[in-house]
Structure formats: C-alpha cells, structure tokens
User: What shape does this take?
Amino acid sequence: MKTRRLYTGFVVALAALAWVAIGNPTAANAQAKEFVFTAIPDQDETQLRKRFNKIADYLSKELGIKVKYIPVKSYAAAVTAFRNGEVHLAWFGGLSGVRARSLVDGSVAIAQGFEDKSFETYFIAHASSGLKPADSFPKEIAGKTFTFGSKGSTSGRLMPEFHIRENLKKAPEEVFSKVGFSGNHSKTIALVQSGAYQVGAVNFKVWEKELKAGKIDESKVQVIWRTPPYPDYQWTIRGDVEKTWQAGFVDRVKNALLNMKDKELLDSFPRSSFIPASNSDYQPIKDVAKEIKLIDD
Assistant: This one.
C-alpha cells in the first residue's frame, strides 16, 4: 500500500511538470527565456562589465529568471537594441531614454538614481587655458578647444550645448576653435587633463568617482562651472515584457531596483539609492532636445 502511494505521488508530480512544460507553455517559456538588459557606454567598458554583470546576478536572484547584461558600443546602439527588442531593459541617460521610449510603444521609465533627479554637468578646463572657477557661465571659453562626451549624452552633450547656445548665442562650432566628441566621460576627463582639449563637459558623478579614485590631477584640470540641475539617468523597460513574463512583471523589476540595498552595487554607479521614475520626469529633457534640434518631436 505504501509503495502504491509513493508511486501515485510520483506520477502526479510528473503530470504537474508536464503541464507546466506542455499545457502551460507561457510559464515554461518565461522561465527559459533570458531577460536581457544593456546600458549606455558612458565609461570604460571594463568598469561597465564589472558593474552590470553584478546587476545581472542581483536581478536573476530577485526575479527568479535568467538575466543577462550585454554591452553596446555607443549610445545610439543602446537605443537601437532597445527598439529592436534585443534588450528588454536599459540604463539610459535622459536623452537616450526619451529617444528609446518614443520608438517603443508602452515603454516606461521605472527607476532613477536618487541623484538623477537633480543631475549636473561640470565644465572642466586644463590649467594652461587660464580659466578659473566661476559661479556664472564662463563666457571666456569662447575661442578655446572644447570636447563633449558622446553625441547622444545628456550630461556630456545635450545640456552643455544648451547652456553654450543660451549664453553665447551661437552653435558650438561657431564658438570654439575646435570641437570634439570623446565618446565617454572618462575619456573627456583624460583628454582635458592631458591638454589635448582646453575645455570639456563631463558628468559630475563620473568626475567625483574618478577624483576619489585618484585618477584626476587637479593641478592640471579643474571644474570651472557647474550647470543648474536637470533630470538624467533612468532605468527604462519595454512595454511588451509582460507578454513573456506575465502581468505584474514591470512592477517586479521596478521593486527589485528600488529595493537594491547592497552598498557595493550602488557605489559602482555611483548612486546612494534608486527611487521611482516616470516618463513625465523627462519632459524637460525632451523640451531642451527639441529646442536645440537634437530630436524632431
């Protein structure tokens, strides 16, 4: 009798597993399918891989599914991967997030760093430029050589270009003797510190992180002006993820990010915490991008 009960229980268990795999293919596919995310390449790729592979491990544990980080070569590539469905979630800057969400119906910003609601760009200058720190926009940068970060960067291109146009009433190409695009914030700092460019625009969090790490020699390069605050980085998720991972999945991902408490993970961004975000938070970025014609609508 005991043997018969054990056998019956074994058969029932097998039947349940079969129903998950065959009778309920959605649940089975959701468990098997990888949830993939990417991030804009705003720093050195080695640093990015180290940071986001740990985030993938964290999300895998919190969500109970396979989560994978894939790197991209440019801001535009991050937006393209999101648009094409190659990734389901992305760590975007303000401008890249606005662009990505406009291309994918139903996509939403779900979380931002506590610091991202009041982000800043630092204008930095090489000692040889003769430029000194100031509270007002440094109009003396006119005629110098200048490097932005990536062409698609909010803190490295959009906001600094806005303030240049606003204060000097000309396009950057008309203001500076030479204009460059470094590709990322770490490289902007390196280029200005070396004297390859006299002035540059950089994400304030990258500056602070590299300064703390001892990578910046302030006898060679210093901050000369800080922009007024604006909204920037955020996690954006595609609007169709619940077709694969079922209703409520967006909130599950959002809660996993908001509940991230590991100091090592947060310091790698660096952020003190993640807080809720919404698409409407980034309307100011969209308005500025339209004003200086970086986006059409």
About this structure: The CA atoms of residues 79 and 100 lie 5 Å apart. DSSP finds 13 helices and eleven strands in the chain. The longest helix spans residues 2-23.
